[in-house]
Amino acid sequence: MKDKILFLIRKIYRLTDKIAFYPTLLAVLGLIFTYAMIYLEEKGISKYLLETFPALVINNTETARSLLTTFIAGLISIMVFSFSMVMILLNQASSNFSPRLLPGLISNKRHQIILGFYIASILYCTFILVYIEPDGDKYQLPGFAVLFAILFMVNCLAAFIYFIHSISQEIQINNILDKIFNVSKHRMLYLIENEKYKEGDFASSNSWQVYKSKKSGYLQNVSVENIAKIAKAQNVRIDVMVIKGLFVSEENIIFKSEKQLDDDVIDRITEHFDFSKSEVVEDNYVLAFKQITEVAVKAMSPGINDPGTALNAIDYLSQLFSLRIHKNDKSLSYISEVAYVSMATVNFKTLIFQVMAELRTYCKHDVVVVEKLLMMLLHLKNIIKEENKKYQEVLDEEIANLILDAEASISNKRDLNFIKSIV
């Protein structure tokens, strides 16, 4: 029962990433507030305020109708204009930077809240307009409710101004890179601070029982702690074979167990594998490396030709790799100092190869970018600690491959000598 509750909570949490979640929530709240105001009007709040604070009540039917009609038309126009502009800017971001950035831009919660506030205000004004009786006198007219419509309209105008400012900042590549970097940085720091790994705490799983996936999609998250609790209860060890963030097909091996498990236990374990059709940086820091690398590659394409953006992207990659070298290549989940679950992760060698392979392919002809890449690799070599000395061999290999590609693409001997002098 507890597992099912946790599963339900995770599913509800995932809904918050959907673009329609906050608009729908605010629209429902707007309807609830509307009916609350209608209830207060039925109890005579406008009549009471007209006698006590007449300045707070609009007591002219035609004025109220004109205001509400104008507000509804104006809010719809503002909403259409705002999100038409969003679509245009998203199209530009996709063309100039990378289509992989779109989910992060679309899921901006502040913009979703503004959209929800627009919709809630439109619904409020519409229902209050319908509530006004054609032959109503000053006591029947919902004047206090109309006052709230005016306040909502003023707030919508303020939200519109903020939206224009926010979207103009959001689409700038420096802000995009900075947001990706900060999210992935916080994720990596969390993993580094909470990871536990001791060599020899987890036996080889080569001969263990294999279990396959019944779903397909990107593995968005794995509740390793909950799987560890199940493993402890069954007195068994689990080796998760799939890497978070990668696409998993049906019939792919997702985990191994050191002994045969019942169908009920298998189902309980697989419930803690969350699949999605999209990728999220908050759950998978490796995606940040992919996104920033794609921005750099796109910037170096002949159609864009923006080496400055590529250099900025490499700076962010350098900072991310500086954090990554402090993380172990394996992750174990412990309960009472016993490792029950091993989680597959993208190791440092594979990660830096994937990044450098793309950058070498598209940036090897540019002397300045090659210099920047060499400086990044040399910086990483200098900050490697004693326990991660194995990473130095990986970096030496990447430096050699980068120089080799540069020699094949750059014909100017002076430029080549300059690059070789850096190493």
From TrEMBL:
Highest taxon of the lineage: Bacteria
Transmembrane spans: 20-40, 67-90, 111-132, 144-164
UniProt xrefs under Pfam families: DUF2254 (PF10011)
Alphabetized UniProt keyword annotations: Membrane, Transmembrane, Transmembrane helix
Protein name: DUF2254 domain-containing protein
Protein species of origin: Mariniflexile litorale
